[in-house]
Amino acid sequence: MDFWKLFTTALVPVLKVLLVTGLGTFLGLQRFNLLRESAARNHLNALVYFVFTPALVCSILAKTITFESLVLVWFMPLNILFTFIIGTALGWLCLKITKAASDMQGLVLGCCAAGNLGNMPLIIIPAVCKDSGTPFGAVDVCNKKGMAYASLSMAISNIYIWTFVYHIIRVYSCRNFNVNKVDNSTVGPVSAIEADLENHSSTPEVTAAHTNDLVTQFKSDTVSKENQIIKPLKTLVKRLNLKILLAPPTMGSILGLIIGVVPPFQKMFVGDDAPFRVVEDSASLLGDACIPAMTLLVGANLLNGFKRSELKVSLLVGIIVVRYMALPILGVVIVKGAIRFGIIHQDPLYHFILLLQYALPPAIGISTITQLFGAGETECSIVMLATNVCASFTLTLWSTFFMWLVL
């Protein structure tokens, strides 16, 4: 295929995303007042998070993933992990170069690490497959395989976002509230018991009662030290927050994989003859609402990006460079190296999705995480606004290049 046909094929899905996002922005304007109020967006966001996303991921994975296909795509979880690790490293480098403020560090690292592996591939892949000039073969075969790849990508990214990125932003957010908190009463070179022992060490006449008092005080001090060791461990367990680790999208992903990989479960829920097919059909019906609702939310949340904030232009440029220049170039090196050494199977559509994972804008889930901690919400909206505007150009160009590369 020539360049312009590939370019048109890559442009169509990006335009779809922009149109739906633009609609969300208009619905958030004061004139329409449908998604303007934060309460309305929060309720819709809760529906997407607790209902639509788990239903979508579970239904698609249950229908499209089998044990054999899961073995073939074993490299995808590793590839997504590479995007997170490399993005975090590049984000840390960006922080050092721009000398970012401490309250911006978690947001920058999160935006550099996590790409929008959720709804973006689920929109791009079907549009690419349905285009008349698609380079990936028959429409039905391309769509079935592409949705399986995109759904698995979404499932894995949800796990990484709500474990890896969540804790990065949490650590940096909590750090801002725990600076210069030193209790002067605990500062001193010698403890009271040590001073007391020093004062009496040179005195030969030490009464038995005083000795017992010292022993009792020493035991009390030992118990206090043990509490100082155990208490941080308990705090760590509480901060891990298993409810977040087992988030609804993650649970939906796990459930869909179990149904798809285990043949008896797949026969029970998937197929025209399945006894519980109504459950899978209902989940699929709910899941169909996920992509438009999520994309509308992106457009409505972008309105906050017009507010003033303390986000430096250099940080914004750094995030854009990391996500749209450095990461895609390194992704080409990694994926082409894996193809050359025969690590991944020969499927151009699979190769295209692996490459696409390095060129996407920041994940929408980062907005939710910043709202949870109440840190950098306005700045996150500005980042989302700028990166999504840039994505309309960069994603089209990179998609065109990726399709040319894998053919």
Automatic annotation (TrEMBL):
Name the UniProt record assigns to this protein: Uncharacterized protein
Positions of transmembrane segments: 6-27, 47-65, 71-95, 107-128, 148-169, 244-265, 285-303, 315-343, 349-370, 382-406
Keyword Transmembrane helix attached: yes
Species of the source: Phaseolus vulgaris
Family to which this protein belongs: Belongs to the auxin efflux carrier (TC 2.A.69.2) family.
Main location group: endoplasmic reticulum
Role description: Involved in cellular auxin homeostasis by regulating auxin metabolism. Regulates intracellular auxin accumulation at the endoplasmic reticulum and thus auxin availability for nuclear auxin signaling.
InterPro entries in UniProt: Mem_transp_PIN-like, PILS1/3/4/5/7
Compartments, record wording: Endoplasmic reticulum membrane
Membrane topology according to the record: Multi-pass membrane protein
Keywords annotated in UniProt: Auxin signaling pathway, Endoplasmic reticulum, Membrane, Transmembrane, Transmembrane helix, Transport
Coiled-coil blocks: none
Entry keyword annotation includes Ion transport: no
GO cellular component: endoplasmic reticulum membrane
UniProt cross-references to Pfam families, sorted A to Z: Mem_trans
